[in-house]
Design a protein that fits this description.
Elements: E1 3-9, H1 16-27, E2 29-33, H2 52-55, E3 60-61, H3 74-90, E4 94-98, H4 102-109, E5 112-113, H5 121-128, H6 132-142, H7 144-149, H8 155-168, E6 176-177, E7 181-189, H9 192-209, H10 211-220, H11 225-230, H12 233-242, H13 248-273, E8 277-281, H14 287-335
Parallel strand pairs: 1-4, 1-7, 2-3, 2-4, 7-8
Antiparallel strand pairs: 5-6
Helix pairs in contact: 1-14, 3-4, 5-8, 6-8, 9-13, 12-13
Length: 336
């Protein structure tokens, strides 16, 4: 019987982290963060990273453990996430995979397979000096098929694709799936206008909390401007503002547009790539109670299935015992 994994998808600002805490409290869960930027230390405000207070005592994994100077890959994430999920299951608790990096979630929840190629940090450092456009053109020359399916502006994925090709000296093979879990996938959403209002409010709060100071701190730690830009969204525009290349108002407007565009991309990816997702409008009344009921029913099915399997095993043992007794009886009659 496959073990349970609860997954929470949704665009930035939809309330995924809050829901993960509520469900963890209700169903004895622990949260595994699936966010490609929240893995880094010192990227707290601009990534919307959950605080200790907001966690409300619920264990959270894969947050703030990587240096912002290095690149953390989806392969590394998968390895760590699977080990953590196993440990959570061993404690008879519910693992909740929650975050905005949809591809990272898919890799763990759906067992997405890709080439096992060790990181080449020297090559990555060399490739990181190139622009997204230069990397995309390079990938087109190396593997036209992969270039057609990759996001042309996703620098991290472009570097990884080129790295795989150069190390294996082969085109990237077709990706396959091996599902290891019984998953319930929940996707949160809001109407476009409401989501954009939330994102704008959130950005203003981040700036008040010290988002600019967060970027200045990264610079003091010798994190390059190029690397800060690689974190994308607001970090890119903040770095340009701090270097005097755009003014404060431009920085705010461009940051807001980038985050809204990213939220649309998250939703589009979910609609196109995930077919077995339960969609929930978080602007509706009692939506959290609906989620709780849904999760409870899903877990109940697991318990019923486990009991059926136990009964089946006991029934099998009983029949084998009866057969042995029957065979013994026949054997003793022959002897007499």
């Amino acid at each position: 019987m496959k073990k349970k994994l609860l997954v929470i998808f949704g665009p930035t600002g939809s309330g995924k982290s809050d829901l993960a805490v509520i469900l963890s409290k209700k169903f004895k869960g622990e949260v595994i963060s699936a966010d490609s930027r929240q893995v880094y230390r010192h990227l707290d405000i601009g990534t919307g990273k959950i605080t200790k207070k907001e966690m409300k005592g619920i264990p959270h994994h894969l947050l703030s453990f990587v240096s912002p100077k290095r690149i953390f890959t989806v392969k590394e994430f998968r390895e760590k996430a699977l080990k953590i999920i196993e440990k959570i299951h061993q404690k008879n608790k519910l693992p909740i995979l929650c975050g905005g990096s949809n591809f990272w979630i898919q890799v763990v929840a759906d067992g997405l397979k890709f080439p096992e190629v060790k990181p080449d940090y020297k090559l990555r450092e060399k490739l990181a000096k190139l622009s997204s456009q230069e990397l995309y053109l390079m990938l087109q020359k190396l593997d036209k098929k992969r270039a057609k399916t990759i996001e042309p502006k996703n620098k991290r994925r472009l570097i990884r694709a080129i790295e795989i090709i150069k190390k294996t000296k082969k085109n990237i093979p077709k990706i396959g799936f091996t599902k290891n879990f019984d998953t319930l996938k929940i996707a949160l959403f809001l109407e476009k206008e409401e989501l954009e209002k939330r994102i704008e409010k959130r950005l203003n709060e981040w700036l008040k909390k010290g988002l600019l100071e967060e970027v200045k701190k990264l610079r003091k730690m010798k994190v390059s401007w190029r690397r800060i830009e690689d974190f994308g969204l607001e970090y890119k525009w903040l770095s340009l503002y701090l270097r005097g290349k755009i003014n404060y108002q431009e920085m705010k407007e461009k940051s807001l547009r980038s985050i809204i565009k990213y939220s649309k991309k998250q939703l589009s990816w979910l609609r196109n790539k995930e077919k077995d997702v339960v969609w929930l409008d978080v602007s509706k009344k009692n939506w959290q109670k609906k989620v709780e009921k849904m999760v409870a029913l899903w877990l109940l099915k697991k318990e019923e299935k486990r009991k059926k399997e136990e009964l089946s095993i006991l029934e099998g043992r009983r029949k084998r015992k009866e057969l042995k007794i029957s065979l013994k009886g026949k054997s003793s009659k022959k002897i007499s």
